[in-house]
Amino acid sequence: MDFALWKKQKPGEPAWDSPWGMGRPGWHIECSAMATKYLGETIDIHSGGRDLIFPHHENEIAQSECANCKQFARYWMHNGYINIDNRKMSKSLGNFFTVRDIAKKYDYEVIRFFMLQAHYRSPINFSAELMEQAKSAVERVYTCIDNLEFLLNNSQERPMSDEDKSFADKIASCRQKFIDAMDDDLNTADAIAAIFDIIYASNTGLSESEQNNRATVQLALDTIHELGSILGLFEKSSKKDISQEVEELIKKRTEARAAKNWAEADAIRDRLKEMNIELKDTPMGVKWNYIE
C-alpha cells in the first residue's frame, strides 16, 4: 500500500535517468522536493483543499520527515469545498465555473467578501441570492464610509464628552472582537461581524442633526479602513468625483432653497436626478450620491 516515490517511464511520457532506470518523480515527492528547496526542511504553513489531506499531504509528511528528520509543517490549513446551490461544484455535474466567470457580473471585492463570510475550513454554498446579499452588504459598508466622511467634514474639535468616550469604547471593543476572531484560526466570519458592529454603532451613535466630535468620527472611519484592509476589503473610494457642472447645480439649488425659491430648487433636483445624482438635505448641508 506504499505510495510511489519514482514512477517507471511509460511510452510517450517525459523521463529522467536514475539508478532505477528511466522514469519520473511520483506526484507526492514533487511537492516535498519543491518545499525543501524553496522553503526549507520545516515550513510554517501548508495549505490546500480538504480533498488533499489523504493521500497527498499525509504522504508529503511521511517522506519529508523520513528524509529530513524534522517536522515538515507547523500549521495545516485545509479549505472547505465550494458548493453550487447546495451541490458540490464539479465538471461532471456541469456546475463548474471560475472566479473570472463570476466577475463578469460581480465585482471582485464582492466575491472576496462572499468567501470571507464563511470560515475557510467550512464549505461555502454559492448561489445568485447569496451573491446579491454580499453585494448589498458591501454597499452598506461603503454607504457608512461615505456618511462618516460627510460627518467628518462637518464636525468640530472639542473635548471628549461622556457620550464621545462611550462611543470610542464601543469602537475599541469592536476592534478587539475583530482581533480575537482573527486569532481564532482566522475566523473571518466573526471578524466581518465585528466590522458591521462598527457600522451599526456609527449609524446609531453619530448624528446628522448636529456637529459631532471630529475625533470620534475619525476613529470610526479609521477603524473601518484598518480592519477592512486586513481582509483586503473596503479600500476603494466610497464615491466618485462630481463634475464642475454638477457641483455648480448643487450650489445653485442651495442658494434657491436659501431664497425659498422652492420651484427652482425642485427643478434643479429633478435635473440632477436625470444625471443619476441623488441629493439629501441635512442640518449640516446637502449630501449627494450616485444612483446606481
Task: Write a concise synopsis of the structure shown.
With 292 residues, the protein is an alpha/beta fold. The chain is 53% helix and 14% strand.
Task: Give the topology, please.
Elements: E1 6-8, E2 23-25, H1 27-39, E3 43-49, H2 53-68, E4 73-79, E5 82-84, E6 87-88, H3 99-103, H4 108-116, E7 124-126, H5 128-153, H6 162-183, H7 188-205, H8 214-231, H9 244-258, H10 262-274, E8 277-282, E9 285-290
Parallel strand pairs: 3-4, 5-7
Antiparallel strand pairs: 1-2, 5-6, 8-9
The rough form would be described as: elongated
Structural class: alpha/beta
Main beta sheet, described?
3 strands, mixed
- Based on DSSP secondary structure assignment, what is the total number of beta strands? 9
Which stretches of 5+ consecutive residues score pLDDT under 50?
none
Provide the β-strand percentage band: 5-15%
Which whole number gives the mean pLDDT?
91
User: What helical percentage do the residues reach?
Assistant: 40-55%
Query: Using only CA atoms, what is the Rg?
Result: 28 Å
Q: Strands of the biggest beta sheet: in what spatial order?
A: 6-5-7
How far the N terminus sits from the C terminus, by CA atoms, comes to: 60 Å
Q: Helix-strand pattern, N to C?
A: EEHEHEEEHHEHHHHHHEE
SS summary, helix count: 10
